[in-house]
Amino acid sequence: MSAVTATGLGVTDVLARCKAEGRAALVGYLPVGFPTVEGSIRAMVAMVEAGVDIVEIGVPYSDPVMDGPVIQAAASTALAGGVRTDDVYRAAAAVRAAGAPPLVMSYWNLVLKRGVERFARDLAAAGGAGLITPDLIPEEAADWIAASDTHGLDRVFLIAPSSTEERLTKVTSACRGFVYAAATMGVTGTRESVDSHAPALVHRARTVSPVPVCVGIGVSSRAQAAEIASWADGVIVGTALVRCLAEHAELSDGIAALRSLTAELAAGVREGDR
Amino acid sequence: MTEHTTSDRSASGPTATERTAGTGTDGIPGRFGPFGGRYVPEALIPALEELDEARQKAMVDPDFLAELERLHRTYTGRPSIITEVPRFAAHAGGARIVLKREDLNHTGSHKINNVIAQALLTKRMGKTRVIAETGAGQHGVATATAAALMGLECTVYMGRVDTERQALNVARMKMLGATVVAVEHGSATLKDAINEALRDWVTNVETTHYLIGTVTGPHPFPEMVRDFHRIIGVEARAQVLELTGRLPDAVIACVGGGSNAMGIFHRFIEDEGVRLVGVEAGGEGVETGRHAARFASASPGVLHGAMSYLMQDEDGQTVESHSISAGLDYPSVGPEHSWLRDSGRAEYRYATDEKVMRAFELLCRTEGIIPALESAHALAGALEVGRELGPDGLILVNLSGRGDKDMHTAAEWFGLVDDGGEGTSDEGARPAAPRRPANGVGLVDDGGEDTSDEGARPAAPRRPANGVGLVDEGER
Predict the structure, then answer these.
(1) Contacts with A76 from chain B: Cβ below 8 Å
(2) Alpha helix (H) residue ranges in A59-107
(3) In terms of CATH architecture, what is B82-107+230-407?
(4) Alpha-carbon distance B104 to B99, whole Å?
(5) Is residue B334 classed as helix, strand or coil in its secondary structure?
(6) B303 CB near a chain A CB, below 8 Å?
(7) 3.40.50.2300, 3.20.20.70, 3.30.10.20, 3.10.450.50: which CATH number matches A3-264?
(8) Does pLDDT of B272 surpass 70?
(9) Is the pLDDT reported for residue B251 higher than 70?
(10) What is the dihedral of CA A168, A174, A175, A176, to 10 degrees?
(11) Confidence tier at A8 by pLDDT (50, 70, 90)
């Protein structure tokens, strides 16, 4: 529908290509501005080069209620360093140039403050693919649904293990690109094992909608990525990647660690038993 | 004069003739004009729907209403009295001033009204654990109290800064068996405590009810908490009519999140001749940026699940608020207040820390009542409105809480020591330097440091009180 889709770089196209390859997509999250704006953009590009299929660009927010300690701390550092909403467009353009669709993850007030229509217009102009909205449900999203239609942007809403069938239907039908299954109850953060509710949630979503289901569940290893790739359309990794940057004082060391983990995860999503 | 009706005795629950939130223009429940709504993660939606259904059923269930009424009568101490305060009113242009004494409720503030009701709902929903946020500590104490009464597990989130300035309430919560978590993130005040409570809730929602303490948050909280506090205005309206034979010219309340204000305002909304005046925290002055006067400076935005006026920067990042009173130190405000303000039904002004402390001292010295610092904002507003109304005016003030918890702050502000009896003048501005630092002179012996779970325990507590490191409260 949009120019983005026409070039074959839309989220939908990438997910379709991965499916044709018989594998799940790897979606990597990093917040813009951490450790610095330039550093975060370099890291996102490195992640694409190392095998991420879709980049989720986080906009740091003062009150990130869905995030655990690692991403909270990264957001605080980014805000203290003076990151602005405008920086997200620069990051989106860089990710696009590196060859992956950039999806922006933003808490709703940041979009609201800029103006929903203006946010969408600016994002589309920068090459952004769409928006993931962790604290916006479709019922509250009339303005965003209209603006994303106007500008050909994807809309990713969330589902959770607590979602009823009625909610799953409502949410998936409002999504374009994919639906984000936050498959463990709780905030972002890595977890040792894969929650048993997760495959059931993906299955329930698939029975009500054809929209692809990507799963965020605290993945940090190749084996976990492979496990989820066997039953999901995409594996979303955030905290483990952010930690690569957080645990290294030198950006170049952090990016090296990031490349190495990304390559492992990219191998993992190709090992799913589908 | 018996204009007050018997139907008002059903206390909680608006009557059909009254304005309630209802459904917004776009069909979303829980809107007050453009404000309110449900801006929360999808994971919480089922819990909010369950809660909405449970409270709607409860509000028409005679058993629930009877149990709530019984607890209010035999435990909370309702109805709370009203007190006319002529010696205080002499400083307010001679207008008559009547206080609604929510400070006399069990646990010392209006907060218990809502907490008892939500705790009953928690049990009806089959949940076994409550969590709460608290600023001044009053809501946390009330929640810990109700949890003890009803056998619920209780965790209270409190900003680190607030645990320090409200150490006594931390000790009370722990004594009541609650776990108190000091939140270090962000500004380490009320908004950060709410963030952490929301993170807990989204993780444990199956067993846990988030017992929100004010008229904010996602629908149905603003409407539900208002309804549980509505008893304040229902009682006060009847009591003022009985005392004076007429309705007040103005009803005044402090507004942080705004629960005590919604509680006393709501019954009066249909009385169009009655001015509704909310008083926000002016902090060090709106021009300094260190305040919580949302209506004087802010624009609409979303925080903690609701659209309302919000202190935010150009990008929509939350701006930190400031107030001498922890209970008003919040960058947003209940969405119904935003609607009452924009629709013109209520008016909002602010009182600076300076004016608040003068009103605080004045009520102490003229009437023998020590108000909470939050409530002292309403008193500062009453002094102004009284002068505007003149001697024929009649003002009802919600004295939402008592000031015991604020003695440390007051002692520092006024430089109180053994000879504290001199500072009675109205113009008693903040002493440049307290005569002696209150800290360490024996007036408050807990020093405020001993508040965290891992905080310095007294070297040798007289009794290890369950090993929870309770503040050593010598005077009690």
Answers:
(1) 185-186
(2) 69-80, 86-98
(3) 3-Layer(aba) Sandwich (3.40)
(4) 11
(5) coil
(6) yes
(7) 3.20.20.70
(8) yes
(9) yes
(10) 150
(11) low
| Confidence bin at A119 (pLDDT 50/70/90) | very high
Q: What is the pLDDT of residue B12?
A: 40
With an 8 Å Cβ cutoff, is A110 touching chain B?
yes
Kindly report, residue by residue over B232-250, the tens digit of the pLDDT: 999 999 999 999 999 999 9
Beta strands A102-105 and A130-132 are: parallel
Name which residue leads in pLDDT, B227 or B16: B227
Q: Which residue has the tokens 């059931």?
A: A200
What is the pLDDT at residue B19? 39
A72 touches chain B (CB under 8 A): yes
Structure tokens at B36: 């309110």
Catalytic residue among B12, B100, B133, B375: B133
Report d(CA B157, CA B416) in Å as an integer: 31
What is the overall mean pLDDT for chain B?
A: 86
Which of A53, A67, A87, A227 is labelled catalytic? Answer: A67
Residue with tokens 């963030």: B195
CATH, domain B30-76+111-225, list 1.10.3430.10, 3.40.190.290, 3.40.50.1100, 3.40.1190.20: 3.40.50.1100
In order of B70, B254, B381, the CA distances from B384 in angstroms are 38, 14, 5
Answer yes or no: A192 catalytic. Answer: no
Best A32, A63, A79, A122 member to test B by mutation, with max B CBs in 10 Å, is A63
Contacts of A110 in chain B (CB under 8 A): 315-317
* Complex ipTM: 0.95
